[in-house]
Design a protein that fits this description.
single chain; alpha+beta; five-stranded antiparallel β-sheet; 5 helices; 5 strands
Length: 166
């Protein structure tokens, strides 16, 4: 601020004075910013608390994930056609209620005809997720509909430890 007061008479000199005033003000602001940044302490602090969340070293973008999808010829015309809600990706294991919600969201995406054929598979999927052992589930499992012509519900569970914990 003092530099602006000292250089203010140069404003009366016209454009060359304006340029001089601008250089003085910007220069003093830059010097002030450098002085302030160098006077700040540079010590870094870290918290010493640890959380129970484990992070996957090989797959940091998806340590725990669950995908439930319907698959088969009735879904898209080919045996490999799939339809499903977006997967759950978390930094902690997926809970049973979240898995059941994902299965319900996938079932809601089906048409009436697809839903009629896959109702049994959906019910088996829900009961499987609900009755997982206390250690949870890790891997893939398929549940077939009324006709066993590759129309099914698939549950894919990945992570450092099993998902569907209670």
């Amino acid at each position: 601020m003092c530099a602006a007061i000292v250089a203010s008479p140069a404003l009366a000199a016209g454009p060359p004075g304006w340029l001089f005033f601008a250089v003085v003000v910007v220069g003093s602001a830059a010097i002030g910013a450098l002085a302030m940044s160098s006077s700040q302490p540079t010590t870094r602090t870290r918290t010493q608390t640890r959380t129970r969340d484990r992070v996957c070293v090989e797959c940091p973008s998806r340590p725990w994930s669950v995908r439930v999808h319907a698959q088969g010829t009735q879904i898209g015309g080919r045996t490999g056609s799939t339809l499903g809600a977006p997967p759950i990706i978390k930094n902690v294991p997926v809970m049973v209620i979240e898995g059941n919600g994902l299965a319900a969201a996938t079932y809601a995406l089906l048409t009436r005809r697809q839903g009629l054929n896959l109702t049994g598979a959906y019910e088996k999927c829900i009961s499987f997720i609900s009755s997982c052992p206390p250690a949870g589930f890790l891997g893939s499992k398929s549940f077939y509909g009324r006709s066993r012509d590759n129309n099914r519900f698939d549950v894919d569970s990945y992570g450092l430890t099993p998902n569907f914990i209670t």
